[in-house]
Write a structure and sequence with these properties.
The complex is a heterodimer of chains A (about 170) and B (about 350). In chain A, about 75% of the residues lie in helices and about 0% in strands. Chain A is mainly alpha-helical and about 170 residues long. The radius of gyration of chain A is 19 Å and the shape is elongated. The chains are: A mainly alpha (about 170), B alpha+beta (about 350).
Chain lengths: ~170, ~350
């Protein structure tokens, strides 16, 4: 997003919190990708992401535009919250996020977006197993029961789906 | 890929989903790649998470006030008994504290007003009043009285007194000065003197006469009477009366510092700020009148201020301090400003 557009977006949300939806949509994937690589479990990544946006919404009035991308401010909040989780206490009120981290995070965002798209393109039974296993966090036995298949067959589907994804990612990178 | 690797991969997926780091298997490069893919999948957000989070945020955003920043809202003064989206909620404790402060402030104002009323005399006692010798400071010209100081004499000579020097001043006079000695062999010869301050040294010579006279010869005692030299009377020199020299009467030197009267007008104060009340006298609620003497010079400034009657309590100094600042239209004699001795009463009163 161009700096002028982003500034207009932020200032609009400062005047009217109802417009925070646009800010959220523009930055959700970046914040989540940043947090997900810094906490061990998906549930924690979701909790931290939710807290980042709650704090951003509450503190948006204090945000002053100084030429730094707005995502840096959001990731600063995220880094602070992650540090709290790791250390159990507040180490620093502000955790700066440098340009290298911002660039690396953009790569992670792209990769997550790509994976989400590739999952959608998997064969139906493979996609169902992947969604149930990774998003539903269900065990092989439960999935097998739901799909009316043997546990061995579900494990095979999981294996093939991961191979498919690996191959398609590899093709994209070549 | 055999069943062993499929089982191993599934266990690694379990570990990833539990937030554990699975041990890498170095034997199979292919399995390691699949583990990386599985790890990426374990990091993806649940498909419904984005929407559910926004649902929560949207409700928060809807309850937040719009149109002003936090800092701007902090400057909005909340009404006491109503609330709006731009104001803070009313808190009972704050209202009680505010009420108490207002009551205290009102009590303080009332108490200070009562104190001022009860102590009015003390508060207003800073005003001092200048009361001159008469009801008006401009001293009245004493009718018929000659100007003070000086003396005169003569022996009814037809000629005016001749020029010469005056004898010395002394506390008493045995023989008046004479330019023409009528009795050259007196029974009790005595030095001629004038009555006046002995420490005042006048120019001396062998020829006695009126220093102000223009006639050198022939010597003459002047047209006055009572001995002495001049047109006056009384054994002195000059036109006055008495054993002194110069115009005026009573001895000493006339024509220097005048008193009001005899053609000498009184000085008139043109800048006379009130004196301050001393703190000591104010606390004691002491009243009194200080009498000062002062010479008002031709320049209108007071000189030689002296306390003639003291009242103490620091009021004497306050009177002096005030009168030193006064400025006068000087006293006049023959249309010329002259130094005039005056008395000033400074009254300090509580009212």
């Amino acid at each position: 997003m161009h700096e002028t557009d982003e500034r207009r977006l932020i200032e609009g949300a400062q005047r009217d919190p109802g417009r925070f939806a646009e800010v959220y949509e523009a930055n959700f994937a970046r914040v989540y990708a940043y947090v997900a690589r810094r906490v061990p479990r998906r549930e924690e990544a979701e909790d931290v992401t939710a807290e980042v946006f709650q704090q951003a919404l509450a503190g948006l009035g204090q945000f002053e535009w100084q030429g730094t991308p707005f995502i840096a401010w959001l990731l600063g909040i995220a880094a602070h919250l992650v540090a709290k989780r790791w250390k159990g206490a507040v180490a620093k009120e502000e955790v700066p996020v440098d340009e290298l981290e911002l660039a690396a995070n953009e790569g992670h965002v792209e990769q997550q977006t790509l994976f989400a798209q590739l999952i959608e393109r998997l064969p139906e039974d493979q996609r169902r197993v992947i969604e149930a296993r990774f998003f539903g966090q269900r065990g092989i036995r439960e999935i097998a029961k739901d799909m009316g298949r043997s546990e061995g067959a579900i494990k095979q589907l999981q294996f093939r789906a991961l191979e498919t994804l690996r191959d398609q990612i590899g093709n994209r990178h070549e | 890929m055999n069943d062993f690797n499929i089982e191993k991969l599934d266990k690694h997926v379990d570990a990833l989903l539990d937030g554990r780091v699975p041990a890498r298997d170095a034997d199979t490069f292919r399995l390691g790649e699949l583990e990386d893919v599985a790890k990426e999948l374990s990091l993806l957000p649940r498909p419904d998470f984005r929407a559910s989070l926004w649902a929560n945020l949207a409700s928060s955003a809807a309850t937040r006030p719009s149109g002003a920043s936090e800092a701007q809202r902090a400057t909005v003064i909340p009404p006491m008994f109503s609330s709006s989206s731009l104001t803070f909620p009313m808190r009972g404790s704050h209202l009680a504290v505010s009420f108490g402060l207002h009551v205290a402030a009102l009590a303080l104002i009332t108490a200070s007003g009562l104190w001022v009323v009860e102590n009015r005399a003390v508060v207003r006692s800073t005003v001092a009043q200048l009361i001159p010798a008469d009801s008006d400071y401009v001293m009245p010209v004493a009718p018929g009285k000659p100007a003070g100081g000086g003396g005169g004499g003569g022996d009814h000579d037809k000629m005016d007194a001749s020029h010469g020097t005056a004898p010395r001043f002394a506390a008493e006079q045995l023989t008046p000065p004479l330019a023409v000695v009528r009795n050259e062999h007196p029974a009790l010869p005595a030095e001629p003197t004038l009555i006046g301050p002995p420490d005042i040294v006048l120019p001396q010579s062998d020829r006695l006469g009126d220093p102000m006279a223009n006639i050198l010869n022939p010597p003459s005692n002047g047209t006055g009477s009572g001995g002495g030299i001049g047109s006056g009377e009384g054994g002195g020199i000059g036109s006055g009366k008495g054993p002194g020299i110069g115009p005026g009467y009573g001895g000493g030197i006339g024509g220097g510092i005048y008193r009001v009267g005899g053609g000498v007008s009184a000085p008139r104060p043109i800048y006379d700020p009130d004196p301050e009340y001393s703190e000591e006298a104010r606390k004691a609620k002491f009243q009194g009148t200080v009498l000062l003497s002062a010479v008002i010079g031709p320049d209108g400034k007071p000189k030689d201020l002296r306390i003639m009657r003291s009242v103490g309590m620091g009021l004497d100094q306050k009177a002096l301090d005030a009168v030193w600042k006064w400025r006068f239209a000087p006293g006049m004699r023959n249309e010329k400003p002259v130094s005039v001795l005056v008395s000033i009463e400074v009254s300090f009163r509580l009212y």
